[in-house]
Design a protein that fits this description.
By secondary structure, this protein is α/β, with parallel strands linked by helices. It is 65% helix and 7% strand. Helix 17 packs parallel to helix 19.
Length: 717
């Protein structure tokens, strides 16, 4: 039999893990129509006729977030034949809140009590038979990561679809039930019987979307409002809160009947870890240490051994040697040989040389993600951001942007408040994305002895840029206003699953290599071409006579105050617009072509070390971290801002901030290394003062002004 089954549940309840288990490799990934929320569809492994739909994670069916709207529109309009409600059974009470709402939709349902392994470890027990009886549907124990209970869930879901048995809806206290009865009577003729309960409750909650979907007369509207108002007066609360507390009361009854509390050992351990890790004072130093450790492992030790081998042995000897031999054997020489050796091998090789480091890094980050530490970082940042008047919600896009700025910018869609969303879009790409890592590794390796502190500091530069921008921009009228509230549940820490971590690493590594082939390669070929030919299209002896050099020389003076006014660096920073890895690829081509040192594999590093002082190197790094992101991310900014003007404002702001920040680094770095005061120092000091003024001046909002005035008046008296 062919069925359509939807997977619904809270974020982090294990939906995606279960979806992968149920569907195997038969998946289709796309977007929900019109929005950028991911849509995943697949076929049941055990029954290719049945389609499974993974819905976005939600805590409720209210109409406030994009995920909620997407999920409920799907459930109401597409009407799947059954819902598998994935429940984090170790957080049963909170998860049942959604369950009570799903039960009202008039769709057959199965409860997948997931994370049962955790529940058992805690010594808790859940009576699934009783739970199933109370909720009017089957309940199955599962542990999606261990593939336990998957067959049974699929089977029960198909049974539910076939039988069409509807779950029981929550019953509320009599004044509420009475109001709901009267609302049902009002809409009875206009609405579908099967989800009358859902509609009545939503109307009681004054849900605008449901309200506008029904064809209501003015009289009916007034009657409805009268019913709601009467109940609100009787219960002394607003209708939405009434329903929420009624639901929790109903759930409390179920919990009392079906759950036996255990030793709570695991939670206790998790909580004890959290008192340290999310401690107000220790949280940031611990975060800094963790980041330092990650980079110590990936860049300074394990990863470097791999990278050294790739650079010194694989590329310098084996690949270059083989390519030489093959070219020689084929009798290829001159231009084509140069293109292959100096363009492709040198450029793409410079980027690919970082692959081992990247793999180790992705591995470490995947572990942090999987064990639950990343969620803590979001929590810590939320607290910090809110103190500065920024929305904690902004941190989710930034967390995503650590991987790639494009989905990071897109993730800003969950922020309803338009000003906060714009502000988040403008600042999200300050986070060092995966493509910027080779730049970090290059600068750290060439100028700072591979110190992991350089890499860790890159994250703090990103966060500082975001926080400072937030404070400065929030003080402008365009962005003023209270930040949106953000609630987040911290999952218990757990041992990361090897499979998840490896899959994650593999995915990232694949896309790193793919980008090197698809985006970086053409760009390095272009750089090779422009650095090999002169304007009259004849080959040049010295790259300094090339097209690229003449263009580079034109823009280079712009960067002289930042400490890297040579044309190669200017060109490298520019090619970063295509993709940030290009910065390294460009150095690869330009320095390889310079050719004097190409005996060992680290000639880029030594050439770079000779060209840059540490202050100039770090300034180059800061500029590239903060300046306009790659074209793909600028495109995402344009899409999300929906306005060319705002895109220009965003990119302009990023470049400006990058420029002054890099200038401070270089100019003050020079001063500190005893090079004396110069015009540059004066300019840097002036801009820094201006920046500090914008940062520290009092807020511009009208309420604040009035408050100040009021305060002054009372003081004067
Ligand atoms: P989603 O947000 O609902 O899609 O949840 P995911 O499938 O991404 O899972 C969230 C986290 O819970 C991941 O780290 C999974 O490895 C983990 N997880 C999923 N199912 C189980 C389970 O049955 N037991 C345990 N202990 N962890 C699980
Ligand atoms: Mg998921």
């Amino acid at each position: 039999m062919n069925h359509t089954i939807a997977l619904a549940g809270n974020p982090n309840s294990g939906k995606t893990t279960m979806f992968n288990q149920l569907t195997g490799s038969a998946q289709y990934v796309g977007n929900w129509p019109g929005v950028t929320v991911e849509k995943k569809e697949g076929r049941l492994k055990s029954d290719k006729e049945s389609i499974i739909q993974d819905l976005p994670g939600i805590y409720s069916l209210s109409p406030y977030t994009l995920e909620e709207v997407v999920s409920r529109t799907y459930l109401i309009e597409q009407r799947p034949e059954a819902i598998i409600n994935v429940i984090d059974a170790s957080n049963l009470e909170r998860n049942l809140y959604l369950t009570t709402q799903l039960a009202e939709l008039g769709v057959p349902m199965v409860l997948a009590l997931n994370m049962m392994d955790t529940v058992k470890k805690r010594g808790q027990s859940i009576n699934k038979e009783k739970l199933g009886r109370m909720l009017g549907c089957d309940a199955v124990f599962t542990a999606a990561v261990h593939a336990e209970g998957m067959e049974e869930v699929a089977q029960k879901a198909k049974e539910a679809a076939t039988s069409g048995r509807l779950p029981k809806t929550a019953s509320f206290s009599s004044p509420v039930e009475n109001a709901l009865q009267r609302i049902s009577a009002l809409i009875q003729d206009a609405a579908d019987e099967t989800y009358l309960r859902w509609l009545s409750i939503k109307l009681f909650e004054r849900d605008e979307k449901v309200m506008s979907g029904l064809d209501f007369s003015e009289t009916a509207k007034n009657q409805l409002e009268a019913i709601i108002a009467e109940c609100e007066a009787a219960m002394d609360d607003d209708s939405e809160s009434i329903i929420t507390s009624e639901r929790y009361q109903y759930i409390a009854g179920i919990m009392g009947e079906c759950v036996q509390k255990g030793r709570e050992q695991l939670t206790a351990v998790s909580d004890r870890i959290d008192t340290v890790v999310t401690n107000r004072i220790l949280a940031l130093p611990i975060f800094a240490f963790v980041m330092w450790l990650v980079y110590f492992i990936s860049m300074a030790t394990v990863g470097t051994m791999g990278t050294d081998w790739v650079n010194d042995v694989l590329f310098a000897d084996i690949v270059a040697g083989t390519v030489d031999a093959v070219l020689g054997a084929l009798g290829i020489s001159g231009m084509l040989a140069s293109l292959i050796q100096d363009g492709i091998v040198a450029g793409a090789g410079a980027v690919l040389g970082f692959l081992p480091q990247m793999m180790v890094l992705f591995f470490c980050l995947a572990i942090l993600e999987d064990c639950g530490y990343m969620a803590r970082i979001a929590f810590i940042m939320d607290r910090m951001f809110r103190r500065f008047g920024l929305s904690g919600k902004s941190f989710i896009p930034m967390l995503v942007a650590i991987g790639c700025g494009v989905p990071g910018v897109m993730a800003s869609r969950t922020i309803e408040n338009e000003r906060d969303r714009k502000l988040t879009i403008m600042t999200t790409t300050f986070m060092p994305c995966g493509a910027k890592l080779p730049i970090i590794a290059l600068i750290a390796g060439a100028l700072f002895d591979g110190s992991p502190a350089v890499a860790a500091s890159a994250y703090f530069v990103g966060i500082a840029a975001i926080v400072c921008s937030g404070i400065i921009l929030k003080k402008m009228k365009t962005f003023a206003g209270e930040p949106a509230p953000f609630v987040m549940e911290l999952p218990a820490y757990h041992i990361p699953s090897g499979r998840n971590v490896l899959l994650h690493m593999w995915d990232k590594a694949k896309s790193f290599v793919r980008r090197a082939g698809v985006i970086i390669l053409p760009a390095t070929i272009l750089v090779w071409f422009l650095s090999t030919f002169s304007w009259s299209l004849s080959t040049v002896e010295d790259t300094a006579d090339s097209i690229l050099a003449s263009v580079g020389n034109l823009i280079a003076p712009l960067f002289a105050p930042l400490g890297w006014g040579d044309w190669q660096s200017a060109v490298a920073a520019f090619t970063g617009l295509i993709a940030k890895e290009n910065v390294v690829g460009t150095f690869g081509v330009l320095f390889e072509y310079a050719g004097e040192l190409s005996e060992d594999g680290t000639e880029i590093w030594s050439t770079l070390a000779a060209a840059f002082t540490p202050a100039a190197g770090y300034s180059f790094l800061v500029f590239n971290l903060l300046c306009a992101p790659c074209f793909a991310a600028i495109g995402a900014i344009k899409r999300e801002m929906g306005s060319a003007k705002w895109t220009m404002i965003a990119v302009g702001y990023q470049c400006l901030l990058a420029y002054v920040a890099a200038m401070w680094v270089y100019q003050f770095g020079r001063l500190l290394s005893g090079e004396g005061f110069s015009t540059g120092t004066a300019v840097a000091a002036t801009t820094l003062l201006g920046f500090l003024y914008l940062l520290l001046r009092p807020a511009q909002s009208c309420e604040k002004k009035q408050l100040c005035r009021a305060g002054k008046v009372s003081e004067a008296r």
